Amino acid sequence: MKSIIIAAPHSGSGKTTITLGIMECLKRRGLAVAPFKVGPDFIDPGYHRLICGRPSVNLDGWMCGGDFVQETFFRHAAGADIAVVEGVMGLFDGIGGVSEEGSTAQAAKLLGAPVILVVDAKGQARSVAALVKGFAEFDPEVRVVGVIFNNVASDTHGRILRDAVESRLPEVRVLGCIPRDEGLSIPSRHLGLFTVEENPLPAEFLDHLVEVIREHLDLGMLWTVATLQGAPDVTIRDEGLSRPGSVRIGVARDAAFCFVYEDNLRLLRQAGAELAEFSPLADSGLPEGIAGLYLPGGYPEVFADVLAANGAMKEAVRRAVESGMPVYAECGGFIYLSRGVESPHLHHLSPGERGAEGGVRGHEFVGIFPVATRMLPRRRALGYRETELAADAVIGPVGAVARGHEFHYSEMEEMPPEVERLYRVRRAGVDLGMEGYRYKNCLASYIHLHFGSRPDMAETFVNHCRNYAQRSH
């Protein structure tokens, strides 16, 4: 298997579009492509999955550590001809200004994979050689083997860019110059690109993207600079899908609940779970025979009218929580368990003015947690988070530390003091206070925890579900 990492000096360089084009071209040549995404992003992996026909897996050295990154890479790349890894932000951007943790550069070193740099050439000429030289030499252990220029204005512009790099950095191959093309833009909104569930990339878009990549990118040279991976020097653990005592867990997955780490699902299966996917948008009830619920993140506010109108599903989730079923909900799943999403025109009203007896004059959700959710015009939270459990919970014992990510444009009313807080939250060592709310056996939070940061989380949750199933029978 070969491998390459598509990186960039900064966000917005066009690496997602170019990564998708490369994946589609390789797939059309009959190659099996294993897709990956560095960092905590959920949206780009959805597009990777659409192109490659197999799950795209997040690789994050800060959340999960180096050993887990290596193991999950070789596990999910098994059987592929080439692994294509899309980077995050700029090549060396990670947890902070000194540490490389969480960066694309860290992933490149862990995987031994070469880096191809996508550079937005708009407004630049010979100076790009200085930029590329800086990235190529910043860390000698990171191998920058190629560069792709994006937003190139003309053939003359492209020739200047190519000459500048080739005259100063003969070891870095100029793989192509992609012209400016508004037809290659992918719609976006506050959390980034539209999800693939809402914008599944029409065939005409993919055909045009392939045409541009084939005409302006040297795919043969790309294949040449891609590294041939050796046998993994890591232990690949069995998933244990058929182990005795397996338990059935419902997982919400549809256009409203589409933000979930693939390795979270894998680790649940590895712990003995049979995962039953269901749609809070379309289904009238929960899957039969489940003993636990996982409500991932997504865009419940975008589909608030449909979710609010599905009374049968809301009642089924409410009954499950009230019965003591183990439930884990994060971000969008947490919002779904709140009283609902307020209509934007209600933001200026006091809580008493928003509805009779504190009700939500907007879209009513499940109502397990007695607070309403508001969408904001600006981002409310972004960044890595570390949590420590203040009490035993469905995902771990008191003192258990796990890592994750928080990114949302919404906020909730202040949670009543009688609702138990379970997470002590830290960001880069700074105490952010208590979060993670529990009602009976339901734990909900804005934070997307990666089970790879503490793999026994999945096993603990499965064991709680197994115990619930035994009590219920």
In helices, the fraction of residues equals: 25-40%
| Mean pLDDT metric | 91
Q: Which blocks of ≥5 consecutive residues have pLDDT under 50?
A: 345-360
Number of helices: 14
CATH architecture of the largest domain: 3-Layer(aba) Sandwich
* Main structural class: alpha/beta
Q: What number of domains?
A: 2
**How much of the sequence is in beta strands?**
25-35%
**What's the CATH class of the largest domain, please?**
Alpha Beta
Cα radius of gyration in angstroms: 23 Å
| Major β-sheet annotation | 10 strands, mixed
User: What is the number of strand segments?
Assistant: 24
Shape: elongated
CA-CA gap between termini: 48 Å
Strand order across the biggest sheet? Answer: 12-11-13-14-23-22-21-18-19-24
CATH topology of the largest domain: Rossmann fold
- The CATH homologous superfamily of the largest domain corresponds to P-loop containing nucleotide triphosphate hydrolases
How would you explain this protein's 3D organization?
Belongs to the CobB/CbiA family. One of its GO terms (biological process) is cobalamin biosynthetic process. Catalyzes the ATP-dependent amidation of the two carboxylate groups at positions a and c of cobyrinate, using either L-glutamine or ammonia as the nitrogen source. It comes from Geobacter metallireducens. Residues 4-191 form the CobQ/CobB/MinD/ParA nucleotide binding domain. The protein has 473 residues and is of the alpha/beta class. The chain has two domains: 2-228, P-loop containing nucleotide triphosphate hydrolases (Rossmann fold); 247-472, Class I glutamine amidotransferase (GATase) domain (Rossmann fold, 3-Layer(aba) Sandwich). The protein contains 14 helices and 24 strands. The protein has helices at 15-28, 43-52, 61-64, 66-77, 104-111, 127-137, 155-168, 203-216, 219-225, 262-270, 304-309, 311-322, 332-336, 456-472; strands spanning 2-7, 33-38, 57-59, 82-86, 115-120, 144-152, 173-179, 188-189, 192-193, 227-228, 247-252, 273-278, 293-295, 327-330, 340-342, 362-364, 372-375, 381-389, 401-408, 410-412, 420-427, 430-439, 442-445, 448-449. It has a ten-stranded mixed sheet. Strands 1, 2, 3, 4, 5, 6, 7 and 10 form an eight-stranded mixed sheet that branches. Helix 1 (15-28) packs across helix 8 and helix 10 (262-270) crosses helix 14 (456-472). The longest helix has 17 residues, at 456-472. It is elongated and about 70 Å long. 49% of the residues are buried. Residues 345-360 have low confidence and may be disordered.
